[in-house]
Amino acid sequence: MDATLAFPILVFLIGVALLFDFLNGLHDAANSIATIVSTRVLRPHYAVAWAAFFNFIAFLVFGLHVANTIGKGIIEPDVVDAAVIFAALIGAIVWNLITWGLGIPSSSSHALIGGLVGAGMAKAGISAAVWSGLSKTLLAIVLSPLVGFLLALVLVAIVSWLSVRSTPFAVDRAFRILQFVSASFYSLGHGGNDAQKTMGIIAVLLYSQGYLGADFAIPFWVVISCQAAMGLGTLMGGWRIVRTMGLRITKLTPMQGFCAETGGAATLFMATYLGVPVSTTHTITGSIVGVGAARRVSAVRWNVASSIVYAWVITIPASGIIAALTYWAVLLLR
């Protein structure tokens, strides 16, 4: 495809990608603020502003390992064209809107990955997938909530032991302050991992059209644009999912909120530095379940947690099917 002739289409697709990034922030705002809102440490509108700021500055903390994984490690770069990217984004956006409307905290990350795989396979069959990168991502579906669960569980045990001689009032006051720190770290991890996925999409699109030359790289303007779009989406909030994440899974105290956010943040930091595109939704859900289970198993509303798991399981195939149908529809309209 001639790069000059493709420029208007390229601009349109970059706009669609940034729209996805905005919706990602909107959809996943709950991941960053659910615990600090449910413990009443911050009011919702202050909480989203706090989270949006740390979402935006995440590029100052992390490298671009996740963006490179998305750009080169999910489907073969040679398969990528305007129709594939458009179909992948539509698959992810439609699935995000469906789950957002229903208040289901599904994974925007896996919706995007499912969209890429669905559109790529619709064009080139099973050979379109880069199985080494894809298998690493699929493994993270299981490991990220499990790691978040275990870290949160251990943190609750440690913090409870350290606080055994303190009064409940003193513990509550201390962790109300500490939750500002843990929420900041979690929002940094969220912005660092999730915004990079859209960076990878835009960069592989630019590369496929010849705008990056011979070497794949992430231009700085792409980094800033994606971080800004995600921060703006977070600023708009996602109140339906906040209710599910912060109130319906288990009742949280400030100490438990701190442990959930810290366990989730540690998981995201590790994954981002390793270049693994994990789900922030999976991670924080696992952490919230972990702190609830540390109190007692019956404290977790397992029917709510299980419905979230069902959404996780179907996200990649559902967004992939939507993307494949979109790709074939684009071919018919050409």
UniProtKB/TrEMBL annotation:
PANTHER family: PHOSPHATE TRANSPORTER. It comes from Bradyrhizobium icense. Its main location: membrane. InterPro entries: Phos_transporter (IPR001204). It comes from the Bacteria. GO terms for molecular function: phosphate transmembrane transporter activity. One of its GO terms (biological process) is phosphate ion transmembrane transport. It is found in: Membrane. It holds the Pfam family PHO4. It is a multi-pass membrane protein. This is Inorganic phosphate transporter. The chain crosses the membrane at residues 47-67, 79-98, 110-131, 138-162, 216-237, 309-333.
